[in-house]
Amino acid sequence: MKKKGHDNEGFQHSVPLEIPPLQTSKVNLVYPAPEDDLYDPFSQRPQTLQYSDFGAWAHMVKGGMGTGIMAMPMAFKYGGFVLGLVGTPVVGIVAVHCVCLLVATAQHLYVRARMPAMTMPEVAYYAFKCGPSYLRRQAVYARFFVQAVLFLTYFFTIISYSIFIGAAIQQLVELWVGEAVLDSRVYIAILALPLVPLGQVRQMRQLVPCSVMANICIVVGFGITLYYLLDEAPTLDRVSMGPTAIGIPIFFSTAIYSMEGIGTVMPVENTMRNPGRLGGWNGIATRAMAFVVAIFTAIGVLGYLKFGDLVKGSIVLNLDDAIPAQVVKALLAVAITLTHPLQFYVVCELVGPVVENRVSTPNLRNWAQIGMRITLVTLSLLVAILVPNLELVIALMGAVLFSSLGLLIPAGVHLVSELAQWEDEKLKRPGASMPARVLLTVLKDAVLLTLSLLTTCAGVYSALVDNDSKSDPAQS
């Protein structure tokens, strides 16, 4: 179904729009719309297949929790105990603030562009298209940049999921059998059995059970891991209180990569029953991130206190071979398997329209969707099979792309939207100086953009350092 507003290519943000009749404004926008603007984007959305606030919360929690949760003790090792304890909540606050920026900008653009919903690339496109006059020609490039970043990030994410699940299954099988049975590539290939059917799910609402079950598996695995971490009194004897100069960027890079899940925000906002409750300081996104930060901080603190500088890349690798430890590995494998379709949904949202636009009839479009989803799952598994050691590639891509998704894009579209509103204001009040609120907002967004670039450099550096240390025979 074609969305309203896509053909409004010539829209100029300073020109009043025709107001649709018989519509009232029910949207609590962060940015105020013009006084006579009564367009209500939420009332234009389909009222079926929408899910509850709890479903939105579950999706947001699952989007922020992945394999990185068990890497937080390693982040604490690089950052030191004090920086880890303080820095993890700070990263969470910055991440949820950027989510709120993205949601607020999108809901503002719904009214300006007369569209009931937008994807993340569309938010970037219309932010520039409705933006300052000197930036409107860059709208197409902004959309392409976001599409490319989203696709590469989440496609490589599902590849890393496949490698992780295959490795976990291989460890469990070899532990039970007592010897190596199959090559790791075979276990990755077997994953096609659950992942291909899960990849056919097309509605976010239908993925709520997967998110809930994945969250349950992670919470149970988290509880068992706590049992190991608390089997003796925590002590500060094994830990370093402060970081090294090299450790600080590695800590922040690891924490941002572990907790970032902003790519699922717009699909959640577009299909939830009460999208106005997603953003804000007490919104669903904030409550979800508070839960995520609490778990990440607890794992980081307790894991570092337990194993100190001997902690490995995943805390699971420090556990013994007892039954509870095996249960943790199994639960984590199940959780990541159930998380796969949520990340895969973002990939399909990007590729799906391109495929459907080349097919004429609804029946053929359905078959094209099926074929596209099977092809993408198969391709991700083939890459994982052909290159099973993707640690360096995934680390580099994740550091560059997740920092762009989590910081650069939300701050960028928010900055452009603010500048557009200021340009509107200057038309009404020629010669007016920029208000302090707008100036502070511009400076804050500029700081976030700078932080994104620093995070990218730090992430690339940490990945290269980690790869060098692993390849050095003296450290093997």
UniProtKB/TrEMBL annotation:
It is found in: Membrane. It is a multi-pass membrane protein. Keywords: Membrane, Transmembrane, Transmembrane helix. GO terms for cellular component: vacuolar membrane. Residues 56-415 form the Amino acid transporter transmembrane domain. The chain crosses the membrane at residues 54-76, 82-105, 144-169, 175-195, 207-230, 250-268, 288-307, 367-387, 393-417, 438-464. Its main location: membrane. One of its GO terms (molecular function) is L-amino acid transmembrane transporter activity. Pfam families: Aa_trans. This is Proton-coupled amino acid transporter-like protein pathetic.
